[in-house]
């Protein structure tokens, strides 16, 4: 306990020091500079976070917004890029395909695209999922919410936080009062030797506006610092791979009068990865040999949505209304194509498919009003959703028909592990109903704001009987029960402006908020069932309870985009935390000699706490310095062990210069070592050394007076440092350490033209 406290105090001290230094430095610079210097400040050429407001459901002191211009300026085309260049303390975990916020990942972080929640589809057999089924070049902005306060508006899943992305609208492309516009971009990234490109065109004709956008990215495996290209268990170089990614976005809006807008959106995304396995699965003389074992992953998302937007300030009943009626399908296929040489000689293939189709409605209204000396901004909304989830594993092999005893013996013993042409879980029909309300109450001429809010959610996951599940190799007995529950997610936030329009900084505001949140178990956690007698069993638990979070955030924010920042301390306690555990040891009862039974359970208590700091300062004409810092600690309080998903202390510092013709930035990403890991969970936490990597980028607009043509080049990890992103290293590691290292020096070049 003493170690936790001292570590946290060091983190708080460092964050506070960074924050406290900014105003003092600002005052010193402004006192020494002539008055005209401030007036000549040209920050528009250096794109700064926060130039666009977060979506109404995510607005709050722990939300940051990254605009399209900022994504382009930082050459951000993935969540990994975002964590390395913009947002300290977050990580994209490539092992399970999820974003890590405040030490939580997977289904504990909610992802939405234009307000539509994205499912976390887990493949039971390989325990992987993915929520990043979108193209960064199709985005208008990206909101990142840290912590569970979004539960009061976004609902279940926002336990650790939320990633809310918004796609391009016609007004993002049409500029300078014209009725049309276009944007084209292409480039190369040596991280995965990828060529990429995108194009968008928009037009406005009277009250009708149209947008068409498409993009592609084709490349290979992500590089690392491993250089041993041997075959088998000693290999450290990444497996050879290639991928193809395509996306399309189309929107049509019709403006009716000044207040009403109707829209229709169609979106398509597809990515296909193919990996040639060269690691411990294959050997030169083994059952699987080089070139005879390929894995793959196909992800496809389709969406059609109808939208309605109303905005009439001072309206009789409401000032704003927004509605979204949608259909969405997300399909994920995990593939194996192989050939066996020694045991059951012949082809071996698998196609594990998960597909969810969802219909839903999201909507909210906003009303501003006065009652006596109080101002109110009331937000009222709902979320309705119906979904259907299907899972099936098809495949081929040379195994004979299963004997009457149910188990293979002799030369065909390996066939006991080959479960195929079956479902690893029943089909699931899901329903979700959510209703929420919040009121931002302004007192003392709006210097004090009190914002209470609450959301009620009810959900149900109902299994459906199918022959493919009932006859599965795991031998399920009957149909598991439905999982249904409800939850209240209250929140209250207080903000007080200590200073307003002060001479040395625009505003200084202290804030505090308390929020409860929850996360329903996924279909895989409830009903996933893979394995069988004579081998092992991985079994879901239909009696799992939803995870619950109870957290506070306390902090201070100040200033604007010229000089501004924030510091936040957070502490969240969790109940019914879901974890995987060894339910039955191998060989007990003789049924599962290989691995026993691995199950899931709720543990009573866990906690995560930490400090987050960010700031920016335009200290001279065309100059900007920015920084981001995060320190997080987390423990399973029931078993008194560390949580292995917690990242180390991290910071990002950058200095940039920009004019209307050219600019450059130099940045550093720093991380402390991570020793606080558990060795008693399902796998051993990775102890990672600390690191510092340096990045530099420059951009040039050769003819800004004639055409908006821009060339940008970035060099990342300039000094070719070997390092590990601790939260991105799996708990089970059959290969040597270097296999899990991050890329060395990489180069990215982009060419963009807009008119």
From TrEMBL:
Domain (TonB-dependent receptor-like beta-barrel) spans: 253-718
Signal peptide start and end residues: 1-26
Question: One Gene Ontology cellular component annotation?
Answer: cell outer membrane
Under SUPFAM superfamilies, the record lists:
Porins
> What domain of life does the UniProt record list for this protein's source?
Bacteria
Please give the biological process terms from Gene Ontology that the record holds. Answer: siderophore transmembrane transport
One matching Pfam family is Plug
Which keywords appear in this protein's UniProt record, sorted alphabetically? Cell outer membrane, Membrane, Receptor, Signal, TonB box, Transmembrane, Transmembrane beta strand, Transport
Task: Name where it's found.
Answer: Cell outer membrane
Family statement drawn from the similarity comment of this UniProt entry: Belongs to the TonB-dependent receptor family.
Record-linked PANTHER family: HEMOGLOBIN AND HEMOGLOBIN-HAPTOGLOBIN-BINDING PROTEIN 1-RELATED, TONB-DEPENDENT OUTER MEMBRANE RECEPTOR
Which NCBIfam families does its entry note? TonB-hemin (TIGR01785), TonB-hemlactrns (TIGR01786)
Protein name per the record: Hemoglobin/transferrin/lactoferrin receptor protein
Organism of origin = Bosea lupini
């Amino acid at each position: 306990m003493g170690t936790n406290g001292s570590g946290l105090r060091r983190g708080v001290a460092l964050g506070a020091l960074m924050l406290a230094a900014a105003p003092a430095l600002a005052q010193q610079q402004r006192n020494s500079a002539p008055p005209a210097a401030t007036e000549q400040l040209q920050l528009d050429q250096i794109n700064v976070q926060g130039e666009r407001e977060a979506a109404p459901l995510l607005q709050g002191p722990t939300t940051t917004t990254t605009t399209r211009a900022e994504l382009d300026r930082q050459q951000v085309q993935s969540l990994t890029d975002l964590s390395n260049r913009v947002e300290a303390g977050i990580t994209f975990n490539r092992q399970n395909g999820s974003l890590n916020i405040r030490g939580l990942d997977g289904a504990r972080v909610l992802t939405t695209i234009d307000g539509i929640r994205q499912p976390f589809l887990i493949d039971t057999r390989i325990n992987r999922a993915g929520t990043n089924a979108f193209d960064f070049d199709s985005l208008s902005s990206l909101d990142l919410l840290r912590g569970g306060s979004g539960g009061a508006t976004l609902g279940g899943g926002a336990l650790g936080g939320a990633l809310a992305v918004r796609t391009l609208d016609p007004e993002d492309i049409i500029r300078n009062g014209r009725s049309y516009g276009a944007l084209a971009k292409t480039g190369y990234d040596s991280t995965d030797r990828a060529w990429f490109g995108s194009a968008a065109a928009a037009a406005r004709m009277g009250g009708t506006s149209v947008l068409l956008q498409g993009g592609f990215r084709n490349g290979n495996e992500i590089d690392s610092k491993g250089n041993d290209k041997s075959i088998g268990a000693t290999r450290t170089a990444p497996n050879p791979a290639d991928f193809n990614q395509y996306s399309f976005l189309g929107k049509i809006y019709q403006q009716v009068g000044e207040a009403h807008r109707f829209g229709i959106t169609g979106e398509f995304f597809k990515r296909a990865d193919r990996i040639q396995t060269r690691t411990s699965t294959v050997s030169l003389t083994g059952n699987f040999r080089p070139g005879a074992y390929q894995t793959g992953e196909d992800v496809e998302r389709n969406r059609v949505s109808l939208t309605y937007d109303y905005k009439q300030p001072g309206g009789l009943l409401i000032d704003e209304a927004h509605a979204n009626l949608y259909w969405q399908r997300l399909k994920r296929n995990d593939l194996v194509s192989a050939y066996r040489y020694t045991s059951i000689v012949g082809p071996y293939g698998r196609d594990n498919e998960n597909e969810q189709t969802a219909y839903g409605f999201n909507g909210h209204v906003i009303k501003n009003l006065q009652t006596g000396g109080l101002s109110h901004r009331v937000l009222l909304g709902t979320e309705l959703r119906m979904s259907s989830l299907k899972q099936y594993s098809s495949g081929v092999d040379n195994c004979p028909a299963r004997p009457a005893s149910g188990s293979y013996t002799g030369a065909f013993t390996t066939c006991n592990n080959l479960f195929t042409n079956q479902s690893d879980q029943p089909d699931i029909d899901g329903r979700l109903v959510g209703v929420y309300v919040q009121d931002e109450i302004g007192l003392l001429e709006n210097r004090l704001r009190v914002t209470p809010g609450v959301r009620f959610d009810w959900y149900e996951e109902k299994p459906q009987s199918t022959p493919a599940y009932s006859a599965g190799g795991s031998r399920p007995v009957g149909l598991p029960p439905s999982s249904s529950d409800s939850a209240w997610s209250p929140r209250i936030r207080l903000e007080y402006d200590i200073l307003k329009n002060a001479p040395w900084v625009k505003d200084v505001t202290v804030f505090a908020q308390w929020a409860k949140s929850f996360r329903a178990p996924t279909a895989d956690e409830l009903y996933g069932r893979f394995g069988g007698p004579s081998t092992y069993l991985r079994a879901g638990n239909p009696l799992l309870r939803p995870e619950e979070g109870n957290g506070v955030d306390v902090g201070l924010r100040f200033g604007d985009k010229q000089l501004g920042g924030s510091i936040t301390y957070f502490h969240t306690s969790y109940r019914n935390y879901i974890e995987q555990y060894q339910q039955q040891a191998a060989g007990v009862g003789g049924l599962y000699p290989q691995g026993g039974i691995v199950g899931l359970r709720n543990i009573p208590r866990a906690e995560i706490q930490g400090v987050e700091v960010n700031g920016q300062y335009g200290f001279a004409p065309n100059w900007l310095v920015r920084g981001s810092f995060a320190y997080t600690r987390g423990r399973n309080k029931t078993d008194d062990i560390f949580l292995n998903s917690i990242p180390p202390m991290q910071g990002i510092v950058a200095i940039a210069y920009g004019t209307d013709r050219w600019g450059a930035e130099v940045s550093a990403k720093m991380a402390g070592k991570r020793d606080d890991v558990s060795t008693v969970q399902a796998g051993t936490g990775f102890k990672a050394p600390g690191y510092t990597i340096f990045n530099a980028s420059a951009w040039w607009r050769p003819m800004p007076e004639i055409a908006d043509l821009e060339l940008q080049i970035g060099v990342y990890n300039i000094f070719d440092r070997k390092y590990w992103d601790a939260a991105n290293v799996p708990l089970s590691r059959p290969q040597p350490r270097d296999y899990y290292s991050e890329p060395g020096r990489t180069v990215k070049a982009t060419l963009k033209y807009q008119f």
